[in-house]
Amino acid sequence: MYMRSDFAALRVRKDVNELAKGTFTCPQARTRVEFPDGPNNMMHLIFTIAIIDLSGPFANGDFTFFVDIPKTYPFHEPGIEYALNPAAAEQLHRNPEQFKSEVQRILCGGRFYGIDFPSHPRQIEMQRQKWGLRVKRPRDDDSPAASSEWDGMASPNASDAIGIEAPVLMDCADGSAWKRTRIE
């Protein structure tokens, strides 16, 4: 005799297989499903949704959802905690364009509505690429004086000598919305 939890696991497996086949996907987003406890526990899932559509307020956003499915599923829907910020909901209702701009700024990281948001991983990587000093450093056995490669060039540590520091992260909170390019 099957138990109710067995039916729930079978239903979750069916739903996840349909999701993996692309049945529930759309051209505006990509989804990924992970099982942190392995395939033996399909009642605990991590869904990652990458928004591809550039016209909406959540453009280029990656969102992760941790889902614990009750053993009574599909007989009772999973409970959803409604965590929408009332100030953000009011702004969305009052001025949708300003809300869209604000969401893009939040995706860049910073403090909004009294909540600290981390910088998006793609933004951090872009800054590392943009501000990284790509100067050939001499090895211990090479010295700039002995190599003709360094003739007429600044020392590889010249930026240290004149006190130039490259910023680690771009502060995009005060500027316009920053559009990230997807890294595949």
UniProtKB/TrEMBL annotation:
Domain of life of the organism encoding this protein: Eukaryota
Chain positions covered by the region annotation Disordered: 133-157
Protein name listed in UniProt: NEDD8-conjugating enzyme ube2f
Organism: Phytophthora pseudosyringae
Gene that this polypeptide is encoded by: UBE2F_2
